[in-house]
Fold:
Amino acid sequence: MRKLHVLAIACLIILSFLLSACRCPSCYRQEETVVPREVLIKTNNFIKQRTGNEFFEKYITPDFVKTKYVAPYFNMVYRFVMPDKSYVNELIEFSVDTLGNIVRDRDIVGIPNCIDADCSFNITEEQVIKIAKDNGLQKGIKDWKTGLIWDAKLNQYVWHILSTDWASEGPQGFRGSGKEAIIDPNTGLILAMNDWHVN
Structure:
């Protein structure tokens, strides 16, 4: 009987140890995708063609947790972060085959063009709000929604400001209208002022 009691306690101790071992932070980490070195070199170089080497090394890093292999492609994800500019915290995404060749018929998102254009991202959120006000964007009925986003049509990052003139929530969901301002984050130039509607 005593042996059974000791054995039961030993089993509980071992079980408790195993359970507590799986509470460590690494158990909850998502699995990182292993990208072959030759593929990574090609994908890094693809980004550097638009950003230049110095900008890439300073602000862009592979995100192997978000990167996924979904046969037959690697869906590559990089983080683009400028530590001294908290509003610049973006993702770069594109797909390559197993040899590292870019898949051109899939979206290529978030690579700034620093070779042909400015990549200072010096226009802050406060400055962009003032620019929008000075150019006639109306206050509206709600606080403006502002954010630095990738604009696929313009193929660049933009400050996007949304004002709401009218809004309603009902059985049909959200309905509303207003205006948007699209502003260059490097120069402060207004790229577009548009109406928006959700019916």
Notes: The radius of gyration is 25 Å.
